[in-house]
Design a protein that fits this description.
alpha/beta; 5 strands; globular
């Protein structure tokens, strides 16, 4: 499976769909693509990992770095479509303490809408 990243705006969120393996070879490209998305004004990301077949520590480092960059700009990042293998990586590394894993895209959109309705304008 080839590595690919696509993104689209959905109800005030940028949905980033990643396909393939996120590892030492693909992580630099992922980091660059996510930074471009942020630099172009997207501060609320939902990362769709439904077609990610492997995630290593280098990939986790990229995701943590992007998360911190977004938080510094009052942005957010959550995840959907996390398969059992990738979910285990998040649990073992205790990243479920900082990352929100939504069961569906609808849940991610609803959580974002609720958070933005409660924040002061």
């Amino acid at each position: 499976m080839e590595f690919a990243v696509e993104h689209q705006d959905v109800k005030g969120l940028t949905v980033v769909k990643i396909t393939g393996e996120i590892d030492v070879f693909t992580s630099p490209r992922l980091r660059e693509l996510l930074l471009d998305i942020i630099e172009n004004g997207s501060l609320h990301l939902v990362i769709d990992l439904g077609e990610v077949t492997f995630l290593d520590s280098t990939g986790l480092g990229v995701l943590v770095g992007i998360y911190h960059r977004l938080r510094a700009r009052d942005g957010s990042m959550s995840f959907v479509g996390v398969n059992e293998r990738v979910r285990r990586v998040f649990h073992v590394t205790q990243l479920t303490k900082i990352f929100v894993l939504h069961p569906t895209m609808d849940d991610a959109v609803a959580a974002h809408e609720e958070a933005t309705s409660q924040s002061p304008s």
